[in-house]
Design goal:
single chain, about 65% helix, about 5% strand, globular
Length: about 150
């Protein structure tokens, strides 16, 4: 019911979010086949990219503020509907926020209609160089992608 209450009032946002999901997953799997579907660094990239794409596509038909609000609601709901272990959930929510924050960081310099996928892919790959390993629920790595050490 919660999913329906979110997607029914926003059918275009919902379709664009689904498209963003497919795009982000495909790109992450292609670039990071070993870690995109695990809790590794590729997963961190995928979550941040996913949020950038959701906001980018939704901003083309509405305001960036509404797009960010919808992105936060749909990605938070995803974590609730498909629960993980607490540390995995913290990682996913953190990396989602990194993607949302990065989009908003770029927004003042670029009109929302001119955003492209490449703006995010290269920058998030660069952010991976400084990514931090999340070891416990108290860790706070504001501004950095995080992933779990899967050794």
């Amino acid at each position: 019911m919660r999913l329906l209450s979110l997607v029914l009032p926003h059918p275009l946002f919902s379709l664009l979010s689904f498209y963003a999901t497919i795009q982000a997953f495909t790109i992450a799997q292609k670039r990071f086949p070993k870690t995109a579907s695990t809790n590794g660094i590729g997963n961190a990239f995928r979550h941040a990219l996913w949020c950038c794409f959701i906001i980018m596509y939704c901003s083309k038909i509405s305001s960036p503020e509404k797009a960010v609000d919808f992105c936060k609601k749909i990605t938070d709901l995803h974590e609730e509907l498909f629960p993980n272990q607490p540390l995995e959930t913290k990682m996913d929510l953190h990396n989602n926020k990194i993607g949302m924050d990065y989009f908003l960081e770029l927004l003042p310099g670029i009109h929302r209609q001119f955003f492209e996928k490449g703006f995010f892919i290269d920058a998030l790959i660069k952010k991976m160089e400084e990514a931090k390993i999340l070891r416990n629920l108290d860790d706070d790595f504001e501004g950095y992608l995080v992933y779990l050490d899967e050794k």
